Amino acid sequence: MDPLLLLMGSFFILIAIRVPVAFALAISSLAVILQLELPFMTVVNQMFTGIDSFPLLAVPFFLILGRLMNDGGITERLLNVSNAWVGHIKGGLGHVNVLVSMLFAGLSGSSAADTAGVGGMLIPAMLKSGFDKDFTVAITACSSVLGVIIPPSIMMVLYGAMGQVSVGALFLSGVVPGILIGFTQMGYTYYLSKKRDYPALPRMPFKDKVTTTLKAIPPLTIPLIILGGITAGVFTATEAAAVALLIGIILVYIVYRESPMKEIPSIFGEGVVMYSLSIFAVATACVMGWLIAYLDAPAMIANYMLGITTSYYGIYTLLVIFLLIIGTFLSPVASIIIFLPIIQGMGNAAGINPIHLGIIVCLTLALGQVTPPYGICLLIACQIGEISVPRAFMATVPILLLALGVIILGIIFPDLFLFLPKMLMPSAFM
């Protein structure tokens, strides 16, 4: 049997029968290594090489920071400031849902953490206020996707580390699309609220708005410190994540004092466990990624694509369709590591800027967190809202199409996403 067919065929079969992704990656890779009679040390070497990356150390810091935010009262402060400024608009809690996800994204870098933290508070509140269950779950899941688009983003850290692309430039390129997607979601919320007569919250006096905002300023400075420090060359993305976590610890346990300090060891322990599970998947995915490159799949696929079209828009269209498909059943992390050689091969064939390619890939794969059967954000939101996944997914379709429209806009006008990194980190384009 053709080794590449064995590799991908066995992997998809294992996924179909619900074998955990990390083990499916390992088993299918081992099968091909046995067939090719490659030394078993290849597996160990590739696993070690894949995770021996300084930027990947940023991931556990962001994971722990997300947990601190939920337990330490920071998420509640973000909810209050969002309510202060957009709660009075028609469909108030829906707008609050989107805005708090945008603010949360600037701190956690994780969509799942956003869904669990924000959704746990807002889904019951929206249902109690009279919002339809399907829309409530849909807007919560879709707005959570901003967690891996607006910097800092764990997915961008991984893409930068694996693809040898500037993480800081990727962070900056995610600002504009993240804001645009957030605004389109708020626009759709307003449209549906007028149509279905969803309620608005009472308008808060300006004095109270200022007071509420001042209370939320300390955590809101964290993303500014991260981006400012990276672009100024003060520290790397990993060092920025460590600084952000340190500030989070100071805010939660010294400034706000809403959680006892005795919880710190358990929170760090849970963060290590979460990271160990994800890093094992990264390690096994690195073996498959190496095999894909070893079998010359990127060149074969690039040549096949060029046989269909050689245009910039044609290549990007095929790439986006490919990413939308694999995003339905694989996590963004696994998708990036497994298919990065193919993705970059297609990008090189079309002469696409590596940073622009990276942000389009991250944006498109982010949508997979809402599309079944993987759709981790949709699954979490459905569990909180007690609604079936098919019903909730149908409500997400218009919101996802709006996000896809933003991605297409960025493909047509690359500088829309790239003008910030070009202005603040020009060295990344040299």
Question: Could you explain the architecture of this structure?
Answer:
The protein has helices at residues 3-16, 21-36, 41-51, 58-71, 74-86, 92-108, 111-129, 133-144, 154-163, 167-173, 175-196, 206-231, 237-256, 264-294, 297-308, 312-326, 332-350, 354-367, 376-385, 389-412, 415-424. It has 430 residues and is an all-alpha fold. The chain folds into two domains: 1-38, no CATH class; 53-429, no CATH class. The chain is globular, with a radius of gyration of 21 Å.
Q: What are the defining features of this structure?
A:
single chain; 430 residues; mainly alpha; 21 helices; globular
Note the beta-strand portion: under 5%
Number of domains in the coordinates?
2
Strand tally is 0
Total count of helical runs of at least 4 residues? 21
Shape: globular
H/E series = HHHHHHHHHHHHHHHHHHHHH
Task: Indicate the topology.
Blueprint: H1 3-16, H2 21-36, H3 41-51, H4 58-71, H5 74-86, H6 92-108, H7 111-129, H8 133-144, H9 154-163, H10 167-173, H11 175-196, H12 206-231, H13 237-256, H14 264-294, H15 297-308, H16 312-326, H17 332-350, H18 354-367, H19 376-385, H20 389-412, H21 415-424
Summary, kept brief:
This protein is an all-alpha fold.
